[in-house]
Amino acid sequence: MNIDGNVAIVTGAAGGIGSAIARALVAGGARVVATDLDDEALERAATEIDPSGENVATLAGDAGSSTHIDATVALAESRFGAVDIYVANAGIGGRPGLAASDADWDLALNVNLLAHVRAARRLVPEWVERGNGYFISTASAAGLLTQLGSPIYSTTKHAAVAFSEWLNVTYGDDGVKVSCLCPMGVDTALLRPPTSPDNGDEMLMQAAVETAGRVLTPSEVAEVVLAAIADEHFLILPHPEVLDMYRNKGADYDRWLRGMRRYQNTLREQLTNA
Question: Which SUPFAM superfamilies does the entry link to (predicted)?
Fold first, then answer.
């Protein structure tokens, strides 16, 4: 797919991966509606994405809200034209461990999964009629493997991968392209949230991500995403080693689980002795 001249929506675009993808899309000739909860950060990001302001529009709001999704699509259509690409990038880590409340789970499900479902519900029927459209879901390597310390993040990202797979299988022959982004560590606020030395699960989560592989910049991830769009490739892996990890998991699930427990125990010991 050639992004030049296309219209895109990017959620979670006030920083990190979302901002970098929006900037790369504009650089490639696309026009972008950027959205995020943080209005002030979003406006700052928009200035960096396109200093001219001609190729980017912004709308602050909840990526999981159907009302906000409708408003964002309406803005894109009025400002630039029909939406060709939707990047469901907004995501949260969620409270770690089994102490997470139902409210914690509901919030993460809303942002990490249902936001994708609602955006697809809004756009895919139109794309099927047109015979063209591209849905990009930001999941995580945790959605293929797991996330030590965080059942919420691991589960919701697995769900995001599963929904992307389903979209691809169901609508791929109708002109709807679907890609799923599954990075490991990326240098964003989500990687390094405020942690408490009294919360072992929080520290375990951060240590697991930072030691699993090289921490990439958002720009490096965006470069891989645009290459995947050009090739219409489903699984986007900025850390190529994730594919080997995924294959090892599928080849011998019990062995992989034992290995993950050993890795977890090693990290816990290192954190205890730090």
Answer: NAD(P)-binding Rossmann-fold domains
Q: In sequence order, what DSSP letters do the residues of 219-251 get, joined into one string?
A: HHHHHHHHHHHHHT-SEE-SSTHHHHHHHHHHH
List the structure tokens of 164: 């992307």
Q: Where is 255: in which H helix or E strand?
A: helix 253-273
- The number of C-alpha atoms within 13 Å of 69 and in the hemisphere containing its C-beta is 20
pLDDT digits (tens, 9 = 90+) for 62-111: 999 999 999 999 999 999 999 999 999 999 988 889 989 999 999 999 99
Report the C-alpha dihedral over residues 208, 211, 216, 221, rounded to 10 degrees: -50
86 is catalytic: no
Distance, CA of 47 to CA of 163 (rounded, Å): 33
Say which residue the tokens 């970098």 belong to.
20
The C-alpha atoms of residue 159 and residue 274 are separated, in whole angstroms, by 35
| Alpha-carbon distances of 35 from 100, 182, 199, 252, 269, rounded to whole Å | 27, 21, 32, 41, 41
